């Protein structure tokens, strides 16, 4: 808990989705609040003031909440929800995940490139295998994620991973066991529930030779 008494993101507790009415852990939900202009605002960090409205981390659920006025019903006041709210949440979650991976890289807790990723997996240091959603299935099949649940992160595209690792693009990366691995896993699970990566994967299959590498600065 923070000094101000707010619950940190990822701490325990369950919330009920205003769409499905199902109760589930906070990590599988997205919090929304009413902004000062009566527009629904995503609160991914769970720190904005106001009554929280929770929706499952699912594009269809967020779209339904926006289209059917469920935010206004939950808040018991008139609220406006942007029609592209799910897309906005997806973009924000992707940016958060890229930022966390960049922090892990700077802290020495993440490596990129096929050989470094293989070495981290072989040594048992890797907690997560991170692979570009638009990498070819043949390329991605070369590596197996660590044992355990939700150890494969495959919801970011090669150019987004490139931003995290200061390269043009990245296909393979590994997050080492440490302070950031759990947060990265949690954010990846939320993004996976919202982002449809099928189109990017299909494009990769059509251009396997182009996407097979790690980019001009991505060797090693």
How many strand elements? 9
| Proportion in helices | 25-40%
Along the chain, the helix and strand elements come as EEEEEHHHEHEHEHEHHH
Please list the strands of the largest sheet in the order they lie side by side. Answer: 6-9-7-8
- Low-confidence runs (pLDDT<50, min 5 residues)? 1-11, 200-212
Biggest sheet: strands, sense, closure?
A: 4 strands, mixed
Class based on secondary structure composition and strand pairing: alpha+beta
Overall mean pLDDT: 87
Put simply, the count of helices is 9
| Global outline | elongated
Compute the gyration radius: what is it? 19 Å
End-to-end Cα distance, whole Å, is 40 Å
Approximate strand percentage = 15-25%
Task: Describe it.
This protein has 220 residues and is of the alpha+beta class. It has 9 helices and 9 strands. It has helices at residues 59-67, 70-75, 85-106, 114-123, 137-140, 158-164, 181-194, 198-206, 208-211, and strands at 14-16, 23-25, 29-34, 40-42, 53-56, 110-112, 126-131, 152-153, 172-176. The chain has a 4-stranded mixed β-sheet, sandwiched between helices.
Short description:
It contains nine helices and nine strands.
Key terms for this structure?
disordered N terminus, 220 residues, 3-stranded antiparallel beta sheet, alpha+beta, 9 strands
């Amino acid at each position: 808990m923070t000094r101000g008494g707010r619950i940190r993101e990822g701490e325990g507790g369950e919330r009920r989705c205003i769409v499905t009415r199902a109760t589930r852990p906070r990590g599988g939900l997205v919090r929304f609040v009413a902004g000062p202009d009566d527009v629904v605002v995503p609160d991914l960090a769970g720190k904005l003031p106001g009554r929280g409205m929770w929706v499952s981390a699912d594009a269809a659920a967020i779209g339904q909440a926006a289209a059917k006025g469920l935010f206004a019903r939950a808040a018991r006041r008139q609220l406006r929800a942007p029609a592209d709210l799910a897309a906005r949440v997806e973009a924000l979650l992707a940016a958060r995940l890229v930022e966390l991976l960049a922090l892990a890289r700077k802290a020495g807790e993440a490596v990129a490139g096929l050989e470094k990723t293989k070495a981290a997996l072989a040594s048992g240091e890797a907690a997560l295998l991170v692979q570009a959603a638009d990498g070819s299935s043949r390329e991605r099949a070369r590596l197996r994620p660590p044992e355990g649940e939700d150890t494969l992160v495959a919801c970011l595209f090669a150019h987004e991973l490139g931003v995290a690792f200061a390269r043009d693009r990245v296909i393979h990366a590994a997050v080492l066991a440490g302070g950031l691995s759990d947060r990265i896993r949690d954010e990846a699970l939320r993004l996976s529930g919202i982002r449809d990566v099928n189109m990017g994967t299909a494009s990769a299959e059509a251009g396997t030779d182009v996407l097979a590498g790690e980019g001009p600065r991505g060797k090693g």
